[in-house]
Design a protein that fits this description.
Largest sheet: 6 strands, mixed, barrel
Mean pLDDT: 85
CATH topology of the largest domain: Barwin-like endoglucanases
Number of domains: 2
Order of helices and strands: HEEEEEEEHEHEHEEHE
CATH class of the largest domain: Mainly Beta
Structural class: alpha+beta
Strand order of the largest sheet: 3-7-4-6-5-8
Distance between the termini: 80 Å
Strand content: 25-35%
Shape: globular
Number of strands: 12
């Protein structure tokens, strides 16, 4: 009987060890870290905003993590926020994101708790005014004081790898469903603006606005959000003209230009 009990204990311990090993095997690293031999990510292009239907995965109306429930937004349109950005790297590299894609720390991607997946967001480091456009395809960071988790490449471009975190301004880039945009155009009520650049230097943007107005014969406006100013050309009543001018501006030295429809 003693031998049988001893054998049962051994089997139980082995089973628990196997379960523990399985639970820990999702990530090979216990703590996150930068890659040991990273390629040059300084030339990695921004994510290219385009219309994408929201994925089936990662977009539950509500979800709970660590005892806290989060609500996913119906749309990213009009979203802006300021807060603390962090970044995640080698521990999660190659694993699945919340919407079922594979996380690539060398891409321009990010994790957010409530934006629908995927979404495109312009991220500005408030301290140095550096900007990137990322594609949000994951959930997190699940810390009270964190707003967004950036990929290694995005963090590198914003010059925040050493500090680990940075104060940032987020501005969602919403691309409307082409079918919906076409219907809105038929109604003739839409006004189009071209976002050119964002900066904390209003005087610089005012001078640039005058030059662009003379060059392209289009009015401009400067929108303020806290200490950040956004220069936009418009309004432009016809979508084809606005689209064509956006493409021209990208070729003429303003590669981050994009179209806004109101």
């Amino acid at each position: 009987m003693l031998r049988i009990n001893s054998l049962a204990v051994i089997l139980l311990v082995s089973l628990l060890a196997a379960c523990s090993s399985h639970q820990q095997s999702r990530y090979q690293l216990t703590n996150d870290e930068a890659p040991t031999s990273a390629p040059d990510v300084s030339k990695v292009e921004d994510a290219h905003p385009k219309f994408e239907p929201y994925s089936r995965g990662g977009n539950k109306k509500n979800y709970t993590v660590l005892g806290k429930t989060y609500q996913v937004m119906d749309s990213a349109e009009g979203y802006q926020a300021e807060g603390i950005a962090s970044w995640y790297g080698a521990k999660f590299h190659g694993h699945l994101t919340s919407n079922g894609e594979t996380y690539d720390m060398y891409s321009m991607s990010a994790a957010h708790k409530s934006l629908p997946l995927p979404s495109y967001v312009r991220v500005t480091n408030v301290k140095n005014n550096k900007q990137v456009i990322v594609r949000v395809n994951d959930r997190g960071p699940f810390h009270e004081d964190r707003l967004i988790d950036l990929s290694y490449a995005a963090a590198h471009r914003l010059d925040m790898l050493k500090t680990g975190t940075a104060n940032v301004h987020l501005e969602a880039i919403h691309i409307a469903n082409p079918e919906s945009a076409a219907l809105a155009e038929l109604k003739g009520n839409a006004q189009h603006y071209i976002q050119i650049v964002a900066s904390s230097n209003k005087a610089k943007l005012t001078t640039l606005a005058k030059d662009l107005e003379q060059t392209y014969q289009v009015k401009s406006r400067i929108q303020q959000t806290n200490n950040l100013y956004r220069l936009q050309l418009g309004p432009i009543g016809q979508a084809p003209l606005a689209t064509k001018l956006t493409a021209t501006l990208k070729q003429q030295g303003y590669p981050h230009s994009y179209l806004i429809t109101e």
